[in-house]
Hints:
Layout: H1 36-46, E1 51-56, E2 72-76, E3 79-85, H2 94-102, E4 106-110, H3 117-129, H4 136-149, E5 151-153, H5 154-160, H6 166-175, E6 179-181, E7 193-196
Parallel strand pairs: 3-4
Antiparallel strand pairs: 1-2, 2-3, 5-7, 6-7
Helix pairs in contact: 1-3
Amino acid sequence: MTAFDHPYELPKRQARHFFAPSRTIRCTGVPKFRSQHARDVATLLDVDDEVVAWNGHPRLVLLGAANYRPDFAVEYTIGRALVLATPEDFCDDPDAEADAKRLGYKLLVQRPSDLPPVRLQNAKDLIAAASFRVSLDERLRLLCFLDENGSAVLGECLSVMRTPTPMATLSTLFLQRFIHIEIDAALIGTDTIVRRRRA
């Protein structure tokens, strides 16, 4: 069985399928996804504070006897990893892990049940809302407000903004790592905690 025949390979007939969200944040190449699950993994990479950058579908890399092709090559602040977004019934392959290690990477296997649903939905919402056009005035206004208060709920932050699209501004500043929005505890709401990020 070739790598292309393997169920985790990207079929040609699916290559043009759209998987939401359409925008990526830390992808350094052309983003390619073979499934919505793989797209969801990439969405979580985009909001992971430990991720410097990721590259989608590194086709020159084959792992293990079955020639698995990882979905992403990821540069973390503390190392590099190859990420394989797999179906739930995928069995771990020690040969694939050894191959990744020889290439200087750690192998991370991500099944659908591994993904935190609340964080994933919040990440999708923030990426979809972001405009990436934040004026210096608006950025400084929010950062000064957070400096004065230490932290604030999202509703208070929205009321400080003068832009007609305050949530787009907050989403953008979160994705640009100026601020931290709590995305793990619950779906984002007016009482979600917002803090300024410190280097």
